[in-house]
Design brief:
heterodimer, A: 192 residues, mainly alpha, Ferritin, 8 helices, 0% strand, B: 150 residues, Cytochrome Bc1 Complex, Chain D, domain 2, globular
Chain lengths: 192, 150
C-alpha cells in the first residue's frame, strides 16, 4: 500500500518540478516545448493514456472476479488468482490517484454484464479455460504498457508504465507455467 | 605466436565485442528512423509481405489487451475495420480527434497509426505504438483478412 502512495507522490513531484515545456523537451518533443501550452496540453495527453490503462485494470479486476466466482478454479489456484487481482486493484488505485492529481477524471468501470459479454465468459468450461483467459489478458496488458511508453511526455510516467508491465509479465509467466505452456524461446519477444 | 601478438588478443576481443554491441543497439535508432518514414516507398514492400497467420498471434498478444474482433473493450471492435471510416462504431466512446479525422483505414493509414498514433492524428486516445515494421505489416494483413471474412 505504501508503495502505491509513494508512486503517486513521485508523480506529483515530477509534475511539480517540470513545466509543460520542460516535460516536452525532456521527452524529445521540441515542437511541443516550443509551442508551450498553445498546442494540446502534454499533461492532458498523458492523462488520456493513464485513463486507457485504467480501463484495462478495471477489466482485469473484473475478469479475476468472474473467474474466482465461476466455481471452475480449484482451491490450489484460487489464492494466486486473488493475489493477482489484488495487484490489479493496487494498479487501479495508483492510476486513479495519478489521474486525479494531474487534474483529470478517472474512467469508471463498466457493468459486469458488459465484461462478461466482451470476454466471452459463457464459453469458459474449465479451470484451464479461465487460466488461458487470464494469461491472454495479462500478456496483452504487459504489451500494452510497453507499447504506450514512448507516448508519455513524462519520464516518471513512462517508468511507472514499465513497472506495471513488469507486474503483468510476472503474472503471465506464472499463468503460462500453470498451464504448462513453454517459455518464449527467443529474447525480446515482449513489446516489439 | 609472439608475446606481442598474444597481447593484442584482448584488444581485438574488445573491438569485436564493441562492434557486436554497436550493431545490436543500432537496431533501435534504425527502427526509429524507419518509423518516421513509415508510409513511404520502403515500407510498401514490407507491408506487402505481411503474413496474416503470424499477424493473428501478434494481434492477440499486442492488441488483445485492449481490442477484440467482435466486442468493444478498452478500444473499439476490429472486425470490418479495414475499409471502415475511422471512429465510426456508433456506440464506442471515441476521441473527438479520431472521429473528425476523415481517415479511412487501409494498409497505409493503419501503418501510420500503428507507428505513432499521436503523430498521425493529434488528440487521439490510443497512445499505443508498434515499433517493428514487420510486426505491423503482419497485424495489418490479419486485420484485412478478418475484415473480409463476414
Amino acid at each position: 500500500m505504501s508503495d502505491v502512495v509513494n508512486l503517486s507522490r513521485r508523480l506529483v513531484v515530477g509534475r511539480g518540478f517540470l513545466s509543460a515545456a520542460a516535460v516536452g523537451l525532456l521527452a524529445g518533443a521540441p515542437a511541443l516545448a516550443a509551442e508551450g501550452k498553445k498546442k494540446s496540453d502534454p499533461a492532458a495527453a498523458d492523462v488520456a493514456i493513464l485513463n486507457v490503462a485504467l480501463g484495462l485494470e478495471h477489466e482485469a479486476i473484473e475478469a479475476y472476479q468472474i473467474g474466482a466466482e465461476s466455481g471452475l478454479v480449484s482451491q490450489g489456484v484460487l489464492p494466486v488468482a486473488v493475489l493477482f487481482q489484488s495487484h490489479h486493484k493496487s494498479h487501479r488505485d495508483a492510476l486513479i490517484n495519478a489521474i486525479k492529481q494531474m487534474g483529470g477524471s478517472p474512467v469508471a468501470a463498466k457493468k459486469r454484464a458488459d465484461y462478461e459479454k466482451a470476454l466471452g465468459v459463457a464459453a469458459l468450461k474449465s479451470e484451464a479455460d479461465v487460466l488461458k483467459l487470464a494469461a491472454k489478458l495479462e500478456l496483452g496488458a504487459a504489451n500494452a504498457y510497453l507499447g504506450v511508453i514512448p507516448s508519455f511526455m513524462s519520464k516518471d510516467l513512462a517508468k511507472v508504465s514499465a513497472r506495471l508491465a513488469a507486474d503483468e509479465t510476472m503474472h503471465w509467466t506464472a499463468l503460462a507455467q500453470a498451464l504448462g505452456q513453454p517459455l518464449p524461446q527467443a529474447a525480446l519477444t515482449f513489446g516489439a | 605466436m609472439t608475446p606481442r601478438q598474444r597481447a593484442l588478443h584482448p584488444v581485438i576481443w574488445t573491438l569485436l565485442l564493441a562492434a557486436g554491441l554497436m550493431s545490436a543497439f543500432s537496431l533501435t535508432p534504425k527502427q526509429a528512423g524507419a518509423d518516421e518514414a513509415a508510409p513511404q516507398a520502403s515500407s510498401a514492400g514490407i507491408l506487402a509481405r505481411g503474413d496474416a497467420l503470424r499477424g493473428q498471434t501478434a494481434y492477440e498478444s499486442r492488441c488483445g489487451g485492449c481490442h477484440s474482433l467482435d466486442a468493444d473493450r478498452i478500444g473499439p471492435r476490429h472486425r470490418g475495420v479495414y475499409g471502415r471510416k475511422a471512429g465510426s462504431i456508433a456506440d464506442f466512446d471515441y476521441s473527438e480527434a479520431l472521429k473528425a479525422s476523415g481517415v479511412v483505414w487501409d494498409a497505409a493509414s493503419l501503418d501510420r497509426w500503428l507507428s505513432g498514433p499521436e503523430a498521425f492524428i493529434p488528440g487521439q486516445r490510443m497512445g499505443f505504438s508498434v515499433s517493428d515494421a514487420g510486426v505491423r505489416a503482419d497485424i495489418i494483413a490479419y486485420l484485412k483478412q478478418e475484415s473480409e471474412r463476414r
